Amino acid sequence: MKQTITQKILASHYNKREVVPGEFINARVDLCLGNDVTAPLSIHELEKSGVKKVWDKNRVALIPDHFTPNKDALSANHCKILKEFSKKHKIKHYFEQGRVGVEHVLLPEKGLVGPGDLVIGADSHTCTYGALGAFSTGVGSTDLAAVMATGLCWFNVPESMKFIYKGKLSKWTGGKDVVLFTIGHIGVDGAHYKAMEFTGPVIDKLPMDDRFAMCNMAIEAGGKNGIIAPDNITRDYIKTTTGKRYAQYAKRLKSLYSDKGAEYADIHEWNISNIEPQVACPHLPSNVKGVSSLKKVSIDQSVIGSCTNGRISDFRIAAKVLKGKKVNSRVRLIIIPATQKIYLQALEEGLLEMFTKAGAAVETPTCGPCLGGHAGILAEGEAAIATTNRNFVGRMGHPKSFVYLSNPAVAAASAIKGRITSPEDL
Amino acid sequence: MRLKGRVFKFGENINTDEIIPARYLNTIEPDVLGKHCMEDADPEFAKKVKKGDIIVAGRNFGCGSSREHAPISIKACGISCVIAESFARIFYRNAINIGLPILENTEVPKDINDGDIIEIDLSKGRIHDDTRGNEYNTQAFPEFMQKIVKAGGLMKYIKKSNKRFI
Predict the structure, then answer these.
(1) Residue B67 is nearest to which of A38, A150, A392, comparing CB atoms?
(2) Which domains can be identified in chain B, with CATH numbers?
(3) pTM here?
(4) Using the beta-carbon criterion (under 8 Å), do A154 and B164 form an inter-chain contact?
(5) Which of A13, A243, A310, B72 would staple A28 via disulfide (CB 3.0–4.6 Å)?
(6) Dihedral through CA A239, CA A177, CA A304, CA A280, nearest 10?
(7) Distance between A235 CA and the closest CA of chain B, angstroms
(8) Which residues of chain A does B86 touch, with a Cβ-Cβ cutoff of 8 Å?
(9) Residues 6+ apart with CB under 8 A from A312
């Protein structure tokens, strides 16, 4: 039987040659993760069930990134639960403040995820790692507890949807625009339970950071996972991240592709040469419009960061737009490098100095305002443009606030003008 | 198991930020989460709900984040079952894993009104609208999921099945 890349990875973790969509499998997990919001519940479940030992202390990652640096005493208690559990079970991949970063940026950067891996995380944006040719998906806390206990997770093998992108991306557009364009077309449940396979000449040339941004938002279309077959761009990336394990990953690369003739539930093909930067308007990630139609929307805050667009290339783009300019006097521009490594890199490249001089506030790595956690909450009636991934009611603060999602160039340009702006119009 | 309650109706794409906003994610206490259930969709919701009441919603209920706090808050505030046209994937898993009854049906969200009294026979997957007299059938969960529900949640099921899930 012809198989998609998603089927192949699931089959290989179920010791089968093939699996079919709709089949329930109990698959072997390579890595599982939880954060300061979700893992305390998992740990509670584990302890309540009397589980004495995690299945593999080297395959569990605990990442206090959502409300850190601890925003209040209750959140601090949650982080303490992670810390004590990590100590008790000798969890190898626990990250303390000053080393922690936004989980879905941190784990690939540390080389803890690679092509062909099966990763589950108690965080919906776990689908990010599909950019490396891994099968990865978000689950809840009890599912994570079950994996921590057994190393196994049940899945209903998904059907796949294929997305073919042709043409050439225009200036100031990137992976974020491609994925917003896609969600705008298929809707927030357009890929309900399905694997979203991103392919075509645009993807073939797309840098790794942009691929992460695309797979990151598969969940916003209801997808189970987003995935891009690994190629030379993937190979170059994992060479720098996976260290001793590189050889093992490199061996897998050849087999990680969808067979010709594999079955798809749906195939979408678009020429995206003419798309302008895309913006998702309140209150759904599918409410997508071209940036030029939103010139009248004024903003109070701009956030550049998150597991979608908090990577070094995002800050380089923002810096290009902000160079020699000032943030509008009534706008808060919040810059959040997603990891310490990115923070340091941005510092060494002079980007942080430039942002600071332009009037931006630079924060330490955290999910922070993306989920309305802390460090950038909106007041009633306020609007923000953000490089984050969700704009549901109340997502960034007050239930009567508004979030527009964009790429980093548009978020930077809008911070300068105080209204939604294309960098072309500066 | 039979359930009976008043319907609270919601629209499409009810997401986890509306079900339990992030400002309450600094706790895992069901009682606290229950008090703030659906707060950003209907600030009075948790106060109005009586034990046994039922949520009826449109497509893609529970979309968004993986927070299990969402089904926990729904269960803790007294809701006995959620009926929706469809459920987002992670919410669906979470509901099964924590033992919050959910049913999928495309007609119910169109026919049944806010405030209707309905009865549900969970074992048969049958929904009866007492207010209007209509009856609806839902598809049973796959056998494997029924086993999890019967065991009282995923962790209990695993314990019982000695690590073998399927």
Answers:
(1) A38
(2) 2-140 (3.20.19.10)
(3) 0.97
(4) no
(5) A13
(6) -140
(7) 30
(8) 189, 192
(9) A209, A337, A342, A345, A346
pLDDT tens-place string over residues A264-320: 999 999 999 999 999 999 999 999 999 999 999 999 999 999 999 999 999 999 999
DSSP A207-230: -HHHHHHHHHGGGGGT-SEEE---
pLDDT of residue B144: 83
Closest partner CB to A124 (pick from B21, B65, B165): B65
pLDDT (tens digit, 9 = 90+) per residue, A87-97? 999 999 999 99
3-state class (DSSP) for residue A56: coil
Quote the tokens at residue A360: 């931006």
Q: What span, in angstroms and rounded, lies between the C-alpha atoms of A332 and A185? A: 31
- For B124, residues 6+ apart whose C-beta sits below 8 A from its C-beta are none
Q: Which domains does chain A have, with CATH numbers?
A: 5-254+263-270 (3.30.499.10), 279-425 (3.30.499.10)
- In B62-123, which residue ranges form alpha helices assigned H by DSSP? 69-76, 89-98, 108-111
Phi, psi for residue A168 in degrees, rounded to 5 = -135, 135
How close does chain B come to A248, measured CA to CA in Å?
Answer: 28
Query: pLDDT tens for residues A205-252?
Result: 999 999 999 999 999 999 999 999 999 999 999 999 999 999 999 999
Q: Are A349 and A110 in contact (CB under 8 A)?
A: no
Interface predicted TM-score (ipTM) of this complex, two decimals = 0.95
Smallest Cα–Cα separation from B34: which of B61, B87, A141, B24?
B24
